[in-house]
């Protein structure tokens, strides 16, 4: 006997039929009389009819509990809170970088202050996770910050799923579909802006002492953590090379740390141009001579020292750039965009790409582990760059043609 099905192929239950208009008819008996109930088939996303309770019945709760026990799911997530779960997850992450540890600490401090951290993990649903992230953005947190926070909570909840504490991961969704991506892309500045800024720094009585360092950042593409980590031993003036095999970090606890480069490709030897060579020579000749040379994890001879005779770190240079651009914009009508050490790196990469450098060579100079990161720089090239490139190609063709005619 074949089973009855509706228009979508779903098997109809006993006493159930489908009308021509698509509605379902249910036949049931009440007080000895046969009655009919007509309705559309409700989908899981449909709202409940008026008067219908939103909580599940005790019988349904019992079935859910039995199903979890059969599947090995620990009832109520073992009474774990979100904060405790994240702390358990962090304890398993050994050997991580200092910057990663700082990110973990930020998330833990946030959960300690927020009510969400005290919630039991089995009570956190998908909608709860989304609402919490939306609230964080409404309270002023940026997209990149929320992305980092979710980057800790998602694997932490996945750990709970893998340990049979939960059935589903409530943070398993695309972040961009929930919160607005308000992050600002750090664009390279133009050659004219770079030239004007460097000229301003060079001629400023106060900021001129940072000219050589900023010039090097613009002309080498070094990460700021790599630059501040350079020591005199990393500079080979005979071969005119820069050895990059570590970076200098300083945490919120003011502890200085030497770490490996950001990626394995970050370890590299860079050539010095003549002007960069001269900048390094001036930096060393003008370098402070402290009573006691600071040492960090066995390294000493850092190029720039602060007022406490300790190595300058990224934060120092970020502040210098901030003060420099503020002063520049207060003087000139044509203002500069926000310039940071990373903008210098991005500007160098863009300039090399526009000059026609081979992408693999540029990847090596930048220390990118993925060629895709380098190639993304080429997407920033606009119409003016395309026109210049076409003109350059046409001139090369014309010169080649003239040489061939002269030979023939």
Number of helical runs?
14
Helix content bin? 40-55%
The outline comes out as extended
| H and E string | EEEHHHHHHHHEEEEEHEEHHHHH
- How does the helix and strand content classify structurally? mainly alpha
Keywords:
408 residues, three-stranded antiparallel β-sheet, DNA polymerase, domain 1, hpI Integrase, Chain A, mainly alpha, extended, 14 helices, Double Stranded RNA Binding Domain
How do the helices and strands line up, and which of them pair or pack?
Blueprint: E1 16-18, E2 24-30, E3 33-39, H1 58-70, H2 82-91, H3 98-113, H4 126-138, H5 143-162, H6 191-203, H7 211-220, H8 224-228, E4 235-236, E5 241-244, E6 247-250, E7 256-259, E8 268-271, H9 274-285, E9 295-296, E10 299-300, H10 314-331, H11 341-354, H12 359-366, H13 371-378, H14 383-407
Antiparallel strand pairs: 1-2, 2-3, 4-5, 5-8, 6-7, 9-10
């Amino acid at each position: 006997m074949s089973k009855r099905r509706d228009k979508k192929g779903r098997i109809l239950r006993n006493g159930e039929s489908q009308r021509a208009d698509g509605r379902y008819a249910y036949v049931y008996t009440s007080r000895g009389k046969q009655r009919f109930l007509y309705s559309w088939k409700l989908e899981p996303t449909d709202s409940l009819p008026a008067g219908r309770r939103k909580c599940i019945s005790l019988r349904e709760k019992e079935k859910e509990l039995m199903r979890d026990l059969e599947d090995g799911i620990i009832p109520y997530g073992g009474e774990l809170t979100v904060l405790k779960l994240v702390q358990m997850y962090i304890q398993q992450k050994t050997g991580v970088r200092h910057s990663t540890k700082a990110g973990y600490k930020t998330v833990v401090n946030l959960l300690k202050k927020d009510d969400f951290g005290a919630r039991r993990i089995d009570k956190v649903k998908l909608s709860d996770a989304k609402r919490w992230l939306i609230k964080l953005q409404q309270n002023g947190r940026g997209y990149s910050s929320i992305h980092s926070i979710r980057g800790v909570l998602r694997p932490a909840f996945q750990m709970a799923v893998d340990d049979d504490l939960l059935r589903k991961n409530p943070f398993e969704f695309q972040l961009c579909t929930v919160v607005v991506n308000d992050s600002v892309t750090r664009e390279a500045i133009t050659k004219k802006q770079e030239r004007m800024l460097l000229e301003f720094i060079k001629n400023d009585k106060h900021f001129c002492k940072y000219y050589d360092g900023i010039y090097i950042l613009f002309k080498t593409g070094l990460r700021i953590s790599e630059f501040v980590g350079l020591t005199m031993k990393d500079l080979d003036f005979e071969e005119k090379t820069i050895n990059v095999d570590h970076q200098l970090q300083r945490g919120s606890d003011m502890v200085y740390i030497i770490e490996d480069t950001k990626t394995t490709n970050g370890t590299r030897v860079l050539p010095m141009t003549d002007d960069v060579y001269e900048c390094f020579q001036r930096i060393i000749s003008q370098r402070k001579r402290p009573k006691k040379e600071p040492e960090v994890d066995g390294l000493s001879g850092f190029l720039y020292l602060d007022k406490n005779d300790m190595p300058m770190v990224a934060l120092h240079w970020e502040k210098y750039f901030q003060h420099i651009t503020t002063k520049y914009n207060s003087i000139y009508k044509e203002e500069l965009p926000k310039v940071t050490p990373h903008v210098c790196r991005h500007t160098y990469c863009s300039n090399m790409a526009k000059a026609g450098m081979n992408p693999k060579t540029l990847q090596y100079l930048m220390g990118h582990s993925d060629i895709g990161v380098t190639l993304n720089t080429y997407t920033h090239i606009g119409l003016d760059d395309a026109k210049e490139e076409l003109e350059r190609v046409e001139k090369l063709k014309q010169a080649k043609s003239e040489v061939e005619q002269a030979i023939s």
